[in-house]
Amino acid sequence: MPMTMTEKILAAHAGVDSVSPGENVWCNVDVLMTHDVCGPGTIGIFHEQFGPDAKVFDRDKVVIIPDHYIFTADPRAHRNVDILRDFVKEQGIANFYDPDFIPANLPGGEVPRPYTDPCRTTYRGVCHSTLAQSGHVRPGEVLLGTDSHTCTAGALGAFATGIGNTDAAFVLGTGKLWLKIPPTLKFVFNGEMPPYLMAKDLILHVIGEIGVDGATYCAMEFSGDTITSLNIDERMTICNMAIEAGGKNGIIAADEVTRQYVKGRTGKEFQAVESDADAEYQGVWEFDASKIEPTVACPHSPDKRATARELSDVTIDRTYIGSCTGGKTTDYIQAAKVLAGKQVKVDTYIVPATTEVDTDLDTQKLGDKTLREIFTDAGCKIGPAGCAACLGGPEDTFGRANEPINVVSTTNRNFPGRMGHKKAGVYLASPLTAAASALTGKITDPREYL
After folding, report:
1. Closest CA relative to residue 391, chosen from 323, 329, 328
2. Which of 434, 414, 435, 433 is nearest to 425 (CA)?
3. What pLDDT sits at residue 316?
4. Helix (H, G, I), strand (E, B) or coil at 34
5. Core vs surface per residue 46-70: b (16+ CB within 10 A) or e
6. What is the rounded distance in angstroms from the CA atom of residue 241 to the CA atom of residue 193?
7. CB 183, CB 220: distance < 8 Å
8. Residue 426: what pLDDT?
9. Shortest CA distance to 2 belongs to which of 239, 273, 394?
10. What is the CATH number of domain 183-267+281-291?
11. Residue 106, Cβ density class (10 Å: 0-12 exposed, 13-18 middle, ≥19 buried)
12. 31 near 144, Cβ under 8 Å?
């Protein structure tokens, strides 16, 4: 029976020869991830249902990554980190990326000093980027996480999706989850990628085409020569935002680019899969990348699509370049191409996704200057690695919109209150468009600077 990639992965993990959309199966889980926001709740349910002395199904398959509310004086955020530490010690979990610069039992009212050296801390930053960079994502595996953007990992040919605390607690205890097989939608991009476009433009174009509910509980499979020309950073941006169209997961077939990336970060074996040529899809969309313009999602929904050119009269107050969708090394290289030798006109926040990216700001160069030097010279404000204002967070969060301002952001979601104030207008865009807009104080097509 011909199957798609998603169907093949789930069939293999259910121990059956084939599956069909709508079928329910018990699947074995390769990796379970949780973080500081959902981890404490998951841990509480786990102990409540399995007992105070229960042990996790496999301590090597649980990955805990504090990343959301780290650099804040909020005592509840500090408490959550302590809860994770206690659980890790209790269970003997090795894969814990501890923000070791936060003292145990830190009281409220005090913002922890960030790491002094990104290479000398166990903290890593945003969970979705950390999972890939630290070798926890492998083609053909099932990865579940207590975060809706866990689908990011599909960029490496895995089945990855977000789950709630109750489901995660069940996985902690059993290593399995009851999953419904999603139908697959296929999105084919062909044509040469213009230098003024990034993966963010492609996925915003798709979401604008089908709507925020256009892929509800569907696998979103991305293919075509445009997709295979992208590096892993860019592929992660595309799969990350599958959830913004309602998707169950996003997935891209593993190729040599994927294999080299994964083998450079883990020695574990993996079995990549590809969709059969005659696999059945619920729908197929085809796009010519060369005809897509720099794209923006207007407040307050990721499917309110417009081109940057059409929004040239929209005044902005801030630019935010960061998050798992826009804070990777590739994102900063592109933004630096626009900002080099120029001055920003509005507050511009640079928030690297991970400490690895933070290090790259000092090692990657354009011309004779590092990325950090380019951003500093342009007048940008650079923060430590993490989620920061992508999820809003406490009021002292770096880059948070505490007033009803307009922000051009490389983040992935722009619902009311997402980045702070409920009346702040968040315009989602690529790092190129965000950087160009920072120079003018208006939404700006990056072709004006490239």
Report:
1. 323
2. 414
3. 98
4. strand
5. bbeebeeeeebbeeebbbbbbbbbb
6. 19
7. no
8. 98
9. 273
10. 3.30.499.10
11. middle
12. yes
Are the CB atoms for 307 and 295 separated by under 8 Å? Answer: yes
Residue pair 150/33 in contact (Cβ under 8 Å)? The answer is yes
Whole-number Å distance between alpha carbons of 308 and 152: 25
Which superfamily, per CATH, for 295-448? Aconitase, domain 3 (3.30.499.10)
Q: Is the dihedral of CA 45, 48, 49, 51 positive or negative?
A: positive
d(C-alpha 327, C-alpha 233), whole Å: 10
C-beta of residue 349 within 8 angstroms of C-beta of residue 380: yes
User: pLDDT under 70 in the chain at which residues?
Assistant: none
The domain limits of the chain are: 5-179, 183-267+281-291, 295-448
pTM above 0.90, yes or no: yes
**Identical fold at 183-267+281-291 and 295-448?**
yes
Give which of 41, 22, 424 is closest to 184, Cα–Cα.
22
DSSP-derived 3-state class of residue 185? strand
Cα→Cα distances 351→107, 250, 312, Å: 25, 25, 25
Six-digit token string for 322: 């960061």
Q: How many C-beta atoms surround the C-beta of residue 17 within 10 A?
A: 9
Lookup: tokens for 247? 């998707």
Query: How far, in Å, CA of 271 to CA of 139, rounded?
Result: 6
| Phi, psi (deg, nearest 5) at residue 190 | -125, 160
For residue 308 the two structure tokens come to 């940057």
Just give the CATH number of 5-179: 3.30.499.10
CA–CA separation, 73 and 69 (whole Å): 9
